[in-house]
Specification:
The complex is a heterodimer of chains A (562) and B (382). With 562 residues, chain A is of the alpha/beta class. Chain A contains 14 helices and 22 strands. In chain A, 27% of the residues lie in helices and 22% in strands. In chain A, strand 17, helix 13 and strand 18 form a beta-alpha-beta unit. Chain A starts with a helix and ends in a 27-residue tail after the last strand. In chain B, strands 1, 2, 3, 4, 5, 6 and 7 form a seven-stranded mixed beta sheet that branches. In chain B, strand 3 and strand 4 form a beta hairpin. In chain B, helix 7 crosses helix 8, helix 8 crosses helix 9 and helix 10 runs antiparallel to helix 11. The longest helix of chain B is centred in the first third of the chain and has 30 residues. Classes of the chains: A alpha/beta (562), B alpha+beta (382). Chain B: InterPro entries: DncV-like_NTFase, DncV_C, GAMP_synthase. Chain B: It catalyses: GTP + ATP = 3',3'-cGAMP + 2 diphosphate.
Chain lengths: 562, 382
C-alpha cells in the first residue's frame, strides 16, 4: 500500500525531526543521522528504518561506539557498531503508530546507552560477551559442569561434504553416529581441548580486542582468567605433531573456545616434534607466532536439548517407554516423545510396529519417500536417530502380541495403534498382570478425525480400557460423535488401498500432541485426568469433559467376574 | 491581510501564476522531438563506432535530469537570453572507453566523437551547437536548448541496466512510463562524468533527483510549487540573481521546511512561500550543503558580491511578501505588488485575492508533540 507507506514516511520524518535527526539522503532508503541521548552523552548514531511494518525494529548504528563512554559499551556489535537496544523477540512494535514507535525506539536506545555508560549493564556486557568474542560457533556436547579434558571433533552432520561442524565432547559424542552415517568412516581421535572453569568473562577496554595472537590472549587472560594462563602452551606440550590446539574457557556467562594455531614458518619438524617437550618455553619467547581464533560454544548436550523447552517440567530422560504403533498418530507421537527426551539419560524409547510404510501413508505420516517399504518402527527409529543422535531408540518389527512379555520391562506402554481389538487384548493382558504391570496409555481418533482421545489405565480402582465400552456392540461410555454421524471409510482398490478411514494429517498431529501431554504429566506425577479428549470437528463431535472414570463392575476385563 | 494563494496556484481551469509559468505544449513537444533526434544521432554514432572498434554494438542509455526530471521547469521570463533547458545524460559502459575500473581514454576523446556527431546534426536541423565544460549544447530555438553530459559506468552495471530496461520496456507496453528513467539498479558511487578540463569526475545526477522525489514525498507538492515560485522570482530579477542556481533555491526551500517542521508547513501556497522566504536571507548566507553529500556545497558558485546581492534581494522579497500577505487589504494593491515581485505573469485578476477570509486571525496550529508508544511485550509464539 504505497499511499500508506508514504504517510508512514512523513510521520517517521516528523518523529526524527522532533529529535533533531536529519535524513541522510546520500544513501537509498530511510536513514537518519543524529545524536542519541542528545542532552547528555550525545552519541552520534545512524538510524535506519528498513521495515515500515516494524516487524524488525529500526537498526541503530553508533558511528563512534566509544563516544561518551570509557571503553566498550554493552549491546554494540564490534563488527559494525550495531546497537542492540531492543529485544525483538520480546517486544512488539506498532506499525500503525510509526512516529510514536520511532520515539519509543530512540528513547529506549537513550536509556540503554545511559545505563551502559553508567555501568548499570556490566552484567549485560558479560551476558553478551559471546557477541564480541567471535563469529564462529562450536557445538558443545558436554554437561554444563564439565571440567577437564575434552576433545574437538570436526564432523559431517549432513550429506554436504563441504559442511563441517565442530563438536566438542568428552571422549565419544553421539554426533559421531551421524558422521559415520554420512562418511562411512569413524571420526578421527579428535584434538585435545582442556575445559577450564573460569570466572565470568568480560573485556578490558585497555587491551586490544579481540586477541589475535598468544601474547594478546595471555595479556587478557592475566586480567580476566589468571587460572587459564599458560593452558594453550600446556596443551601443545601434551600432544604430538599437531600445530593446532584448543582450550575452552568455561565461564558462568558461556563457554568460549580458543583455537591456537602455530604460524606457518614455525611448523617445522624441529619445532613441532624434536622440541615438543619444551614447546611451552619456546612459545613463551615467540607468543606472536601463535594465531588465535575465538569460537562460542552452543550447548547441544542432551540435558540442554531436552529440557530447554519444558520450563519447570521434567523431561522424559531416564524413562523406559514402549510405543506400540508407528502409524500416523504413532509416528508423530514418537517424534514428540523423542523431542521430550525419551531415550535420553539412560532411558529408552522402544518402537513396535509390524507394518511397512507405503505410498498411501505419505500424505499423513511423519516419514516420506526415503522410507518407502521400510518397516514403520525401524524407519521412525532411523529418522529420529538422525535428528536427535543423543537418544537410545530401539525398534521391533514384530507384532506386540508375539512379544507381550516385553511390556513389563517398561515404565510406560503406549498403544497408538487405534486398533480396538488389539487394544482390548493388550488391556486384558495388562489387567491380568496387575499389579506388576506399568501404566498403559491408549490414544486414538474418533470418527474421521473428529476428536482425539487419550486414556491412561493403571489404577485398579479406576476404569480399564474395556470399562469404556463394556459391550463391544454397545454404547461407548463417553459419546464423542454426534447422533447419526456416519463414519466415512474409503477404499482404492486400483491403488492397492484396502479399507481405511480418511482424516487429515492435522488431526493425527493433534492426537499425538494430546498423548504427549499426558505422558509428560505422567513423568511429572501430575496425571490429573486419565481420560481426555480434544474435539476438532464440532459439526460431527461433541465436547466431553475430561475425567477419571471409575471401574465398571460388570466389565469383562477388570470387573467382579474377571 | 490578503490571501493570495489562488493568485499563485489554483486547480482546474482557473488562471493562476503557476499555470502561466508552465511551458507551452508546443514548446514541450518541440523539446521532446529534439531530444529524440539527439538520442537517435548518438545511438547511431556509437553503434557504428563500437562495431568498428570493438566488434560489438553498444547502445548508449539516456537519463533526463535537471528541472525537466524534477518537474520544476518554468517558461523563461526574459527570452532572450533566458532559455528552457533540458539535460539529457548519455551513459556508456566503461570498457567502451577501454578501462575496467576507470576509463583510460581521456574524456576529451569521448567529447570529440559526440561533438562531431552533434555538430553535424545541428547543421542538418538548423540548430546552434556549443561546448560547455561538462556537456555539449544544442540550442534548438530562441528559448530552449538541450545539454548532453556524458557518463561512463562499469560494464557490469551497464549490463544490469540493460536487463532492467528490457524487462521494464516489456512492462512499459502496458503502462505509460518513461522507461529511460528507470535507474534503480545502478549504484551511485561508480558513475563518472566526462569533463573537458578535468577529464573524468565522480558525479551522479540521480542522487539529487532521488533526494527531491523523497523531499516531495515528505512535504508534498507545495514544496515543488514553492521551488518554482522562487525560480520565477530569481528569473524576473535578472541579471542580479543570475548566479543563484536552481538547485541552491531548491535546497534552501527544503532546509526551510526542515526548519519549520512538517506539521508547521502551511497548506496555503502564499503562506508556505512566506515562511520559506522568511528563512531565505539567513540560508543564503550559507553554507548550503548538498543534501546527498554533506561534503559538497551547492552555494559554492556564489561569489561574495553575488551572495551579498542575493541576501539583500531575499530580504526585500521577504519584506514585500510579508507586507502583501499580512498587511495589505486592497486586492488591487496586492496584485500590483505581486507583479512587481514576480513579473507580469501574475494574473491581473483581483477576484483571486481574498481579503475578507484572510482578515480572520490565523490560528497557528502547533503539531502535538509525539510521545513514545508504550512498550508492549510479546504474548504469542510459534
Amino acid at each position: 500500500m504505497p499511499e500508506r507507506d508514504d504517510d508512514s514516511v512523513r510521520r517517521i520524518h516528523d518523529a526524527f525531526s522532533q529529535r533533531n535527526f536529519r535524513r541522510d539522503f546520500s544513501r537509498r532508503g530511510l536513514h537518519y543521522i543524529g545524536l542519541l541521548d542528545e542532552t547528555g552523552l550525545k552519541v552520534p548514531a545512524v538510524v535506519s528504518v528498513d521495515d515500515l511494518d516494524f516487524i524488525r525494529p529500526p537498526v541503530i548504528c553508533l558511528t563512534d561506539p566509544e563516544a561518551g563512554s570509557k571503553g566498550q559499551v554493552p549491546h554494540v556489535l564490534r563488527s559494525d557498531g550495531t546497537f542492540c537496544y531492543l529485544d525483538r523477540k520480546s517486544v512488539v512494535l506498532d506499525r500503525y503508530k510509526p512516529a510514536e514507535t520511532i520515539i519509543q525506539c530512540l528513547e529506549r536506545a537513550d536509556q540503554v546507552l545511559r545505563d551502559a555508560v553508567r555501568g548499570r549493564l556490566v552484567d549485560d556486557l558479560a551476558e553478551e560477551f559471546g557477541g564480541y568474542w567471535s563469529d564462529g560457533e562450536v557445538l558443545v556436547d558436554l554437561p554444563p559442569s564439565f571440567e577437564g579434558d575434552a576433545k574437538v571433533h570436526i564432523l559431517r552432520l549432513d550429506r554436504d561434504p563441504e559442511h563441517k561442524t565442530i563438536v566438542v565432547s568428552h571422549d565419544k559424542t553421539s554426533f559421531a553416529k551421524l558422521h559415520r552415517r554420512n562418511t562411512v568412516k569413524d571420526p578421527g581421535p579428535g584434538i585435545l581441548c582442556p575445559i577450564i572453569l573460569v570466572p565470568p568473562l568480560s573485556f578490558d577496554p585497555k587491551l586490544p580486542w579481540p586477541p589475535k595472537d598468544l601474547a594478546q590472549l595471555n595479556g587478557w587472560l592475566k586480567k580476566m582468567a589468571p587460572n587459564a594462563l599458560g593452558s594453550i602452551e600446556a596443551a601443545f606440550a601434551r600432544t604430538k605433531d599437531l600445530h593446532i590446539q584448543w582450550i575452552c574457557l568455561s565461564a558462568p556467562n558461556g563457554r568460549f573456545f580458543v583455537s591456537a594455531e602455530i604460524a606457518k614458518p614455525y611448523r617445522t619438524p624441529e619445532f613441532l616434534k624434536n622440541r615438543r617437550a619444551s614447546i611451552a618455553r619456546t612459545l613463551d619467547r615467540i607468543p606472536a607466532a601463535v594465531e588465535i581464533s575465538g569460537y562460542v560454544g552452543v550447548p547441544a548436550d542432551e540435558g540442554y536439548v531436552f529440557s530447554r523447552n519444558l520450563g519447570h517440567m521434567k523431561n522424559l530422560a531416564g524413562k523406559r517407554i514402549l510405543l506400540i504403533g508407528c502409524g500416523t498418530v504413532g509416528g508423530f507421537l514418537a517424534q514428540h516423545l523423542a523431542q521430550s527426551g525419551a531415550g535420553a539419560g539412560g532411558g529408552r524409547l522402544m518402537l513396535v510396529d509390524d507394518d511397512e510404510l507405503q505410498g498411501a501413508n505419505l500424505g499423513r505420516h511423519l516419514l516420506g519417500a526415503p522410507y518407502l517399504t521400510w518397516n514403520k518402527a525401524e524407519a521412525c527409529a532411523d529418522f529420529l536417530g538422525q535428528q536427535l543422535p543423543h537418544l537410545d531408540i530401539g525398534f521391533s518389527c514384530d507384532s506386540i502380541m508375539k512379544q507381550l512379555a516385553i511390556l513389563q520391562r517398561y515404565d510406560l506402554c503406549i498403544d497408538a495403534t487405534g486398533e480396538e481389538a488389539l487394544s482390548i487384548a493388550l488391556n486384558d493382558y495388562a489387567v491380568r498382570k496387575r499389579p506388576d504391570f506399568p501404566p498403559i496409555l491408549y490414544t486414538w481418533l474418533e470418527g474421521n478425525g473428529a476428536a482425539a482421545v487419550g486414556f491412561m489405565s493403571h489404577d485398579p480402582d479406576l476404569a480399564c480400557f474395556k470399562c469404556l465400552k463394556v459391550e463391544l456392540a454397545g454404547e461407548k461410555r463417553f459419546r464423542l460423535l454426534r447422533e447419526g454421524v456416519e463414519i466415512e471409510t474409503a477404499r482404492n482398490l486400483a491403488c492397492g488401498d484396502a479399507h481405511y478411514i480418511p482424516f487429515p494429517v492435522s488431526r493425527a498431529a493433534s492426537a499425538a500432541g494430546l498423548a504427549c501431554d499426558m505422558v509428560l504429566d505422567w513423568a511429572n506425577n501430575g496425571e490429573r485426568h486419565r481420560w481426555r479428549s480434544l474435539t476438532m470437528d464440532h459439526r460431527t463431535a461433541n465436547e466431553v469433559k475430561d475425567g477419571n472414570p471409575k471401574r465398571v463392575v460388570k466389565c469383562p476385563a477388570c470387573g467382579g467376574s474377571a | 491581510m490578503a490571501n493570495v494563494s489562488k493568485v499563485l496556484h489554483a486547480s482546474g481551469d482557473a488562471a493562476c501564476f503557476l499555470k502561466n509559468l508552465n511551458i507551452a505544449d508546443t514548446d514541450r513537444a518541440c523539446l521532446m522531438e529534439a531530444r529524440e533526434k539527439v538520442r537517435d544521432c548518438l545511438r547511431k554514432t556509437f553503434a557504428a563506432l563500437t562495431k568498428q572498434e570493438l566488434g560489438v554494438t553498444v547502445h548508449p542509455r539516456f537519463f533526463t535530469q535537471g528541472s525537466f526530471a524534477y518537474r520544476t521547469i518554468n517558461d523563461p521570463c526574459w527570452t532572450p537570453p533566458q532559455q528552457m533547458d533540458l539535460d539529457d545524460g548519455a551513459y556508456l559502459p566503461m570498457t567502451f572507453i577501454q578501462g575496467v575500473q576507470r576509463p583510460s581514454v581521456a574524456a576529451t576523446a569521448f567529447f570529440k566523437v559526440v561533438d562531431a556527431a552533434l555538430e553535424k546534426l545541428a547543421k542538418e536541423e538548423g540548430w546552434q551547437f556549443g561546448k560547455k565544460p561538462t556537456c555539449s549544447r544544442l540550442v534548438i530555438s530562441s528559448n530552449s536548448h538541450i545539454d548532453v553530459p556524458l557518463y561512463a559506468i562499469p560494464d557490469a552495471e551497464f549490463e544490469k541496466l540493460e536487463k532492467q530496461m528490457k524487462s521494464f520496456d516489456a512492462m512499459a507496453r502496458d503502462a505509460r512510463v518513461d522507461s529511460d528513467d528507470r535507474w534503480d539498479a545502478l549504484p551511485s558511487d561508480c558513475v563518472l562524468l566526462a569533463h573537458r578540463e578535468h577529464d573524468w569526475i565522480s558525479s551522479d545526477p540521480r542522487k539529487i533527483r532521488d533526494w527531491f522525489v523523497e523531499a516531495i514525498k515528505i512535504y508534498g507538492p507545495v514544496l515543488r510549487r514553492v521551488c518554482r515560485y522562487l525560480k520565477a522570482w530569481r528569473d524576473h530579477h535578472r541579471p542580479h540573481l543570475d548566479d543563484v542556481s536552481s538547485i541552491l533555491l531548491m535546497v534552501c526551500a527544503f532546509e526551510a521546511c526542515e526548519d519549520l517542521g512538517r506539521p508547521n508547513v502551511p497548506g496555503r501556497d502564499d503562506l508556505a512561500l512566506l515562511r520559506i522566504a522568511e528563512r531565505l536571507p539567513r540560508l543564503l548566507e550559507g553554507p548550503v550543503y548538498n543534501p546527498t553529500d554533506r561534503d559538497e556545497r551547492v552555494d559554492g558558485r556564489l561569489s561574495a558580491a553575488s551572495r551579498r546581492i542575493a541576501i539583500d534581494m531575499a530580504k526585500k522579497f521577504d519584506a514585500e511578501l510579508t507586507e502583501i500577505v499580512e498587511k495589505c487589504f486592497d486586492p488591487e494593491e496586492a496584485i500590483e505588488r505581486l507583479t512587481a515581485l514576480f513579473g507580469d505573469r501574475i494574473p491581473d485578476q483581483i477576484d483571486l485575492v481574498d481579503v475578507t477570509k484572510a482578515a480572520h486571525a490565523e490560528i497557528r496550529s502547533h503539531a502535538p508533540r509525539i510521545a513514545a508508544a508504550p512498550t508492549v511485550g510479546k504474548s504469542t509464539s510459534a
